[in-house]
Specification:
Elements: H1 2-52, H2 59-63, H3 69-94, H4 102-124, H5 128-151, H6 158-179, H7 181-185, H8 195-229, H9 232-246, H10 249-263, H11 269-296, H12 299-306, H13 313-339, H14 344-368, H15 370-396, H16 408-421
Helix pairs in contact: 1-4, 1-5, 1-8, 1-9, 1-10, 3-4, 3-8, 4-5, 4-6, 5-6, 8-9, 8-14, 8-15, 9-13, 10-11, 10-13, 11-13, 13-15, 14-15
């Protein structure tokens, strides 16, 4: 188990580095305006991908050992093609301004959806390392293409970035099919659509994706509002601020691997509570250190890394600090609820969090720009935290003092790590 965790953490770290390098290069060579265009395009992919994988998300991990490849692959494929086709027609007919480069957008989303389906099936077959490598293909190929263009002096427009995504996801799709080539050979026409399996996939995936969708909207609805009420240059500055602060989620997601694995395999409620509290305090401490570093770095550092147009990043990070810190802390509560089968709590919290995101966004962003966006984002994350914190305290009878870090917590963390290594 520890080897798979380390391999997964390594893969996530490489992906994060590639993402950060992409942010830096796009900012330096395309400026704040180009970075704003990139942010909207990338977020459109994320939202479309959530819809396209409604029947092909991580629920495939659960169903893969229980059904044939054809039975789970075809419903996912049919839903992906059908949903994206309908959305493409809608966007094409109504000419929505924030949907840029629609042909490339839907092509990339289609390839990304099938690649995600392949990765989830690999995980369901416990081929974790292959799934991790598959997930690395797209960001790695994309950043390599961008670096080649920069070396040749030809990276100058957003279309070059879009081409890098087409190459990255195209290679990812091909490699995923190669990894599952034996499974693809077993496809049977008579198993194209099993209605019972389709209902299972839809039922299992719907609540999960609604939660993911609301979480993404909480994090990124401000992008659309900034694009409408402000400028692409302002959006570029805000998106970089968000990306930097959210890079600290690597801590919380890494701890979540340990937590969810442990809690899913125990019925001891006292132990579940104690472990969640321990990881919450650890998460809070590590996230605070990382976020404080970003907040204290001099303005000149951000200008050096991203360019002169990004001088506002530091004050925006300072406004986002509390919200992102609480969002990181919330992940331990989310894993606790999931281990108890209470997936709806996080979905409810994220849905309610959309209220300040929207109301404060349309109130503050037109007047205060990205400062208003940062305030509305922090308010949303804070509300989500308070809701999940309330449910966790009620379910575990925890006291406020239980969340204050203690000296013995370090020893408990060391013991936890050593016990994992023995497995």
């Amino acid at each position: 188990m520890i080897k798979n965790i380390i391999h997964t953490l390594f893969a996530k770290s490489i992906t994060s580095i590639a993402g950060l390098l992409t942010i830096v290069l796009v900012s330096q060579y395309l400026g704040a305006t180009g970075k704003g265009e990139q942010s909207i395009f990338l977020f459109n992919i994320v939202l479309l991908l959530l819809i396209a994988t409604l029947v092909g998300n991580t629920t495939l991990i659960y169903l893969t050992p229980r059904h044939s490849f054809s039975n789970i692959f075809f419903p996912s494929l049919i839903w992906t093609i059908g949903s994206l086709s309908v959305l493409f027609l809608v966007f094409w007919m109504f000419k929505i301004p924030i949907i840029t480069y629609p042909k490339q957008l839907f092509c990339i989303t289609f390839m990304a959806a099938l690649s995600e389906t392949n990765a989830n099936i690999l995980i369901g077959k416990e081929r974790i390392r292959q799934a991790n490598i598959l997930k690395l293909i797209s960001p790695t190929a994309s950043i390599i293409y961008i670096i080649i263009l920069i070396t040749l002096g030809r990276f100058s427009t957003i279309t070059h970035y879009i081409t890098s995504l087409l190459i990255g996801y195209g290679l990812s799709l091909v490699y995923g099919i190669y990894l599952l080539r034996d499974e693809y050979k077993t496809i049977r026409a008579q198993e194209i659509l099993n209605l019972r399996i389709f209902k299972d996939l839809f039922a299992l995936g719907f609540i999960k994706q609604i939660g993911n969708l609301t979480q993404q909207l909480n994090a990124r609805m401000s992008y659309y509002l900034i694009a409408i009420y402000s400028t692409k240059e302002a959006l570029g500055v805000f998106s970089n601020s968000i990306s930097l602060t959210e890079s600290t989620l690597l801590f919380s997601s890494s701890l979540a691997l340990v937590q969810y694995s442990r809690l899913s395999n125990t019925q001891d409620h006292a132990y579940s509570k104690a472990l969640t509290l321990l990881l919450t305090k650890t998460n809070l401490t590590l996230s605070l250190l990382a976020l404080a570093t970003f907040a204290l770095l001099p303005q000149s550092f951000y200008i050096l890394v991203f360019g002169a147009e990004f001088s506002q990043i530091k004050p925006i990070i300072q406004l986002l600090l509390l919200g992102v810190l609480l969002l990181n802390t919330t992940t331990t509560f989310t894993q606790y609820f999931a281990s108890k089968g209470n997936f709806h709590i996080s979905t409810i919290a994220s849905s309610i969090g959309l209220i300040p995101t929207f109301l404060l966004g349309i109130t503050l962003i037109p007047n205060y720009g990205i400062v208003g966006a940062a305030i509305s984002t922090t308010a949303s994350y804070t509300l989500i935290f308070l809701i999940e914190y309330h449910y966790f305290r009620r379910m575990t009878n925890s006291k406020i003092k239980d969340f204050i870090p203690q000296k013995q917590d370090l020893q408990h963390i060391k013991h936890l790590i050593s016990s994992i290594k023995k497995k």
